[in-house]
C-alpha cells in the first residue's frame, strides 16, 4: 500500500488551458460566468485545480488561443501560482486558409504557412521551457475524390520531418490521431497505425498520443495503449470520455470501467514509472457544467482509476492467467475495480495537507463567486480566442 | 417509361434556407463569398436551384434565423422568384436559456418559453401559408443522473400536446428524432420509436420525419421508412448523408446505394403517390463546397435515386421473391441501381425546357459572380443568424 | 437500508437452460466437461445457481432444445430441486425450412409451420404452468431486394395475432428485437420501436423484452427501459453483455456502469415493485468459461448493480436535478455506483443462511467434479440439441 | 479504353475453396444441394467460376479443411480443370486445444502445436507450388483480465518470426487482422496497425491482408489501402461485404460505392500493375444463396468496381483537386461510378470467347442439376470439414 500511495502521489495530470474557456457544439456555445479573458486568468483557474487535487501541476497551452507577447512572463506568472507550463498545442484548423487542409493542403503556400506555425510553436516551447509539442491535424476531406489521399500522406510526411528536425535536445512531439471530425470522409491521421508509422520513420522524438475520444465504436483502446507502450511509442494521453463520437465529456464519466482498463495497461506496461515520459493530459470541454469543478472531478476520476489499477493483485492475476482460469483471472481484475478507493485517496490527500474532498473544498472556497464578480467585461476565452 | 417520367416530373424536393448560409463544425465556420445576408437573399438563391432542376419549388424556413417583420411580404417575394414557403422549422436550441433543455427543461419557465416559440411558429405558418411545422429538440443530458429521463418524457408530451392542439385544419407537425448531438448521454427523442409513440398518441396531424443522418451505425434506415409508411406515420425526410455521425454532407454523397434503397421503399410504400404528404426535404450543410451548386447536386442525387427506384422491375422482383430466389431477386434490384439514369434525366429536363446539365448551366449563368460582387458588407447568414 | 435489503431479497433472476449447455461461435463450439445431456440435468445445474445465490428460483426453457415427453414430470423434477419453470422460449430458426424466414417466410406453408410451433409453445406453457412466452424471430434478409420488407411485416402481424389470441388468462408473450444476426441486411424485428408498435396493437398481453446485446453501437439502452416502463410495455430483460455485437458475454462483464444505469431506470420506473411483471432473465453463453459459475457470477453482477441502483439517494438527486446542478446530480448518481456493495450482499446472504461468497462456496462444493465424473457418454446439450 | 480493357483482362481474382461448402451462423448452417464432399469437388466448382468469368484462375485452400494425402495430385487435378492452387490458409481455431488461443495461448505446448501447423502449411505451399500463406489468428480474450494483452504480443511475435524464417525464396505470408469475433473483448491482431507493425519488423516477405469485413463501424477502408500501398505492405484483399459486423456477404452487395473507392485507391497506388503482388481474393460465405453463382456474382462485382475505378478521368481529377474544386473533383469521381460498365464488360467477355452474361450462361449450363444429382451421400464440406 505504501508503494501504491507513493505512485499515486507521484502521478501528474496536466489540465488544458482551453478547458477553462467557453466551449460548445456547432449548435451553440453557452457562455458561463467567471470565464477567463486571457491566458493569465486561465492559469489562475488551473492553479485552483492543482491546489485542491495536488496532482495537476502543469497546464497545456494552445497556440494561438494562448498567444502572449512575453512567454517568459507567462511562465513566471504560472510559477507564482504554483503551476508550470506543459505541452504546447498547435492549431492549424482555424485560419480561413485551412478550409481544405493545413500541412496536407493541395497548395504549397498553405502548407508553408501551416508548417511555419508548427515551427513557431517550437519557438514557444523554447521560450516557456515546455518539452512537448502536441500536433493534431484536422486535415482531411469531406467527399470522395475531393483530394488525393496518398498525396496528402506525402505532404504530411514532409511537414512532420521539417518540424522533427527543428526539435531541440530535450524536446519531442506527440502526434494525435482522430477518426473523423471536422473532416467527414477521410482524415489524414485517422488512427493509431497511421500516427505510429509516421513516428517510427521520424525517430525517437516522435511519439503517439492517444485521445480517448478519437476511435471508432468498439475499438479497444487499452489494446492500443498496451501495444504502443510495448513499442516505446506511447507519448501520452488526451483524456476525455464519450458515449458516441468525440463528445469531450469529463474523463471517466461515460465508461469508468474502460478508464480503469486503460490505466491497468499503463501500470502493466510501466507507464507510471519515472522517466517513461507518458504524459497524462486532459483534453475535454465543459459545455454545460462549470469549468473548474469539471476539471477537478476529471482529475479525481483519473486518480481513482489509477488507484484501482494499482490495486490489481498482479501475482494472483498472473497465476490465474497461466492456468487458463478465465473466471478466476477476471475476478482478480474485477476485485480491484469494485473496490471503493475514495477513502484511500481522501487519506492520501490529508497526509499531504489537502482537504479530503476536493470538490467540497473548492465549492466552499468562494473562488467561483470571486471570479464571477471580478471577470466582467472583456472577451471571454473560448475555442475561437 | 411514360409513367416514370410523369412521376419524376411530379416529384418535389424542398431546400432549406439555412443551406445557403455559412455553416461549419465546432472547430470553425469558413465564410464563403456571396453568402446571403437575409431571408430574401436566401430565397433568391433557392430560386436558382429550382430554376435549374425544376423540382425544388419550395424553401423551408428556420425561425428565428429567418425572422422578418412581414411574413406575407416574404411569401410574396418567394412567389415572385417562382418558389414558395415550405416547412417552418422551430429552433429551441440557441437561446442561453436552453442550456439544459427546452421543452424538457427542469424549469417550468424555460419550458413555457420554448413552447411559446413553437406556438409562434404556428403563427408564422398561418402568415406564410405553410402547412408543416418541423420540430427538432436538441434536448437531452450529457451526464448520467443529470436529469430524470422519465420526467423529461412527461414534459415533452405536455408541450407536444399543447402545440398539437394549436394546429389549424390543414396543418401538421413532423417530429424529428436524433441519436445524439448536441446532447451526449441521453437524448429526449433519440430514435424513431420514441417519435412514433408520441405521434400515435397525439393523432393524425403528428408524423415522424426521418433525418437520414440521425441514426446509430448500422441502423437500416429503409426499414424504418417502410415501417412508418405502413403505419401512415411517415411525414417526410430530412435528407443528407454521413460516413460517421450527423455529418450533414450532400445527400447521396456517402452511400448512394442506401439512398436508392430508401427511395425504393418510398416507391414500394406509395410515398410518391399524390396526396400521401411525404415531404422530401434537404437538411444539410455545405461547410467547404459552394452552397447553390451543393444544393443543385443534392437535388439531382435524390432525383437519380428516385429514377433508379422507379426502374425496379417490380413484377420480376415479386416473382423472384415469391420463389425464394435470393440471387435472382437481388439481381433484379441491382439491375435498376446499376442503370445509368443520367441520360433519362437529361432528356426529361430538356422536355421541360431546362438545360440538360443543371450544374453546368448554373456555372455558366454568372449568378455566383454576381452575388459575390454584390453581397459585400453586412452580416452573412449562418446558423447563428 | 432495511427497505433495500427487502427489495434485494425479493429480486428474482431467471437463468436459461441453454446456458448450461455448450455454445460457441460459428467458428467453433468448444465442449466442456460435465455439460448436461438433457433438460433434467440442466435443471439440476440451474438449481445449483439458485442454491448459492438464493435469487435464481426459475429456469427458462427453450423448445425444442428442452423438449420432453412429459412436461408435468419435468416441472415436478424442477420443484424437487427447488426451482420452477420460467419462460418458454420458442425456436423458429433451426429447421431447414426456415432458411428464408419463419413467420415472415414468403411461403404460407412455412409460416403455418412456424406459427404452429409457437402455438405448441403455449401448450407447453399450459403443461408446465409457465406464464410467459418469449418470441425471438431470426427472420430477415441478407440482400437488398431478397424479399419485400413491408410484406414481411404483414406476415409477422398475422402470426403474432394468432398466437396472441391463443394465450390463456394469466399468460403473456414477450417480443424480442435484435439489430442483426443471423440476418445481415434487414431484420424483421430490428429495434424496440418495431416490437413496441406490434405489441401496442395486440394488447396488454404483449410486451417488449430488452436483450441488452441487441442494439446498434451507441444506443442508450436505459432510455429504452425508461420509455417502455413509462408506457407499461417493458416485459423484461434478456441480460448479457457485449463489447461489439451480440457477444453474449456475462452480464455486467463488459460495461458494469451501463448495467447500473439500466437498473437505476428500472428502480426509478417501479420495475422492481411487486406485480409489475418485469422479468429479469439471463440470456447468455459461456463459450470458454465454465457454465455454472458463469451463471452464478452473472446473477451476482445483476444483484450488485441492483444494490447500487437502490443506493442512489433519490431525494438528493431530485434536488440537484431541479436546480440544474449538472455536477451535483451526477455526483449523487456516481456516489452510489462507486460504493462497494459486496459487503452488504455478503451480509444479506448470511442473513438468509447462504454462504457469503457464492463463487467460493460453489467451487468448494465438489459439484463440478461430480458432474464431470458422472456425465460421461451421451450427447452433450448445446444450441443444436 | 484499350488500356482499360487490357488491365481488366489481366485482373485475377482468387476464389476460396470454402465458399463452395456449406456455411452459416452460430444459429444454423443450412445445407444445400450439390455441395462438394472433398477438395477435388471444390476445385471442380471453382473451375466453373473461372470458366464463365475468365478471371478467376486460382483457388485458395484451407488447411485442414482441404487436407489431402497427395497435394501434387490435387494440384494436377486443378490444372486439368484449368485452374491453379492459390494461397494456403492456415487454421488454428478449430482444435479443442485452441479454446484460449493458438500462437498466443498461455501454454507453450499449445503454441508449439499451433506454430507447427503454420510450418506444415509452408510444407503444403512447397508441395502445391503456392507462393502465399495467409495467417488469420482468432486469438484473443473474452473478458478483461483473462490473459495478459502484452504477453500475448510477445508470443505472437515469436511464432511469426519462426514462420517467417521458414519461408522459401519466392514465398511470403499475409497477416490478417480482425476487430473481433470469435474473441469478444481483446483480439490479438485487431487492426491494420498491429499487423503492419509486426510485418515491418519481420521484413519484406510479410505483408498485410485487408479483409473488407474486419473493421469497426465507420472505418475508412480505402484509406488503409492507400496507406499500405504507399508503404509497400499491402499483400492483398479478402473481399466480402457487410452491413454490421463480419457478415461475409457477397463483395459489393452491401456498399458497392465503397468497393469502387477501394478499387480506385488500388488503381491510384499501382496495385493493378504487373508484379505488385496485390492478391485479390474472395473470402465470403453463401449461407442462403447457391454457392457457385454466388461466387460468379462476386467476381463480377469486383470486376465492375475495377472497371469503374479505371474509368476515373485522373487528369481531370488531379486538376480539380489542385484547384481545391471540391464539387468538381467529386463530380469527376462520381461520373466514373455512375457509369454503367456492364456493356463494356459484356463486350470484353465476348472478345475473349466467353458468354456476355456469366450468370445466365452458368444457369443454362446444367452444371448445378448435374452436381445436385451426382453428389448424393458422403459428408458435405463445410467449415468443420
From TrEMBL, chains A, B, C, D:
GO terms of molecular function: L-rhamnose isomerase activity; metal ion binding
SUPFAM superfamilies: Xylose isomerase-like
Signal peptide, first to last residue: none
Keyword Chaperone recorded: no
NCBIfam families for this protein: RhaI_grampos (TIGR02635)
Record-linked PANTHER family: L-RHAMNOSE ISOMERASE
Protein name listed in UniProt: L-rhamnose isomerase/sugar isomerase
Organism: Nonomuraea fuscirosea
